[in-house]
Sequence to fold (146 residues):
Amino acid sequence: MTLAKLIPAHPEPPILALPYPLALGRAGLSGFPSPAQDYEGRTLDLNERLVKRPSATFFMSVTGDSMTRLGIHEGDLLLVDRSIDPRPRHIIVAMVDGEITVKRYELRGDVPYLCSGNPRYAPIPLEDLDCQVWGVVRAVIHEYPV
Fold:
């Protein structure tokens, strides 16, 4: 998965509060809530919810199919935070030998690897490679065709 477009987050994102009704998915039949409860004036600002550190956050579009089993698809928008120290199992954006890639960071023994979410791509051992971590993926925005 390679970089398609890199967009820095706005340092002071404008507030955009959208309606956010209380909607709970129920597993089973336990009665029906009042429809009026769903519209009690709640709002959600995605900048407030997702962008924790605006000066360290950027958005990135991706290409490729190496992360599909981990929920990242061609054309998805990633929200990446440069201030988070990567830990095993984090999905990261990194520059590896001059190429920007999105992979899951793993340790196997004492050896760090970048692993894809597609079995067609082998894990990349980082022992002898030049790798610069750009940030940790905090969110994936996947649009459905309408």
